Amino acid sequence: MAVKEVERKITKIGNSLGVTFPQEVLEHLKVKQGESVVFRIGQNGEVIFKKRPAVNVEGFEDIDEDFLEGMKEMFSQYDNTLRNLVDR
């Protein structure tokens, strides 16, 4: 795929600011509504984002579903904190 630049304006969405993504970007990332993307902020001012990879649950078949759901919520809530601990 050729490199292409697309511009979007920042808009107000409720009490937040947001940006819409063109359909071709969503198709390129293979994401759809409800899925997550991950943003990586570089030191040079660049922001890179990609589709959050699916979690491999192989080997977790015998673990209680409520426990897994609780772990998912915990990781979602404390994602930034846990990522910052990696650098220590």
How would you describe this protein?
- With 88 residues, this protein is α+β, with helices and mostly antiparallel strands.
- 32% of the residues lie in helices and 18% in strands.
- The protein has 3 helices and 4 strands, in the order E-E-H-E-E-H-H.
- Strand 1 and strand 2 form a beta hairpin.
- The longest helix has 13 residues.
Q: So what's the overall shape?
A: extended
The biggest beta sheet reads: 2 strands, antiparallel
β-strand amount: 15-25%
Q: How many E strands? A: 4
SSE-based structural type: alpha+beta
Runs in which pLDDT lies below 50 for 5 or more consecutive residues are: none
Helix content: 25-40%
Radius of gyration: 17 Å
Mean pLDDT: 85
Order of helices and strands: EEHEEHH
Strand order of the largest sheet: 1-2
N- and C-termini, Cα separation: 38 Å
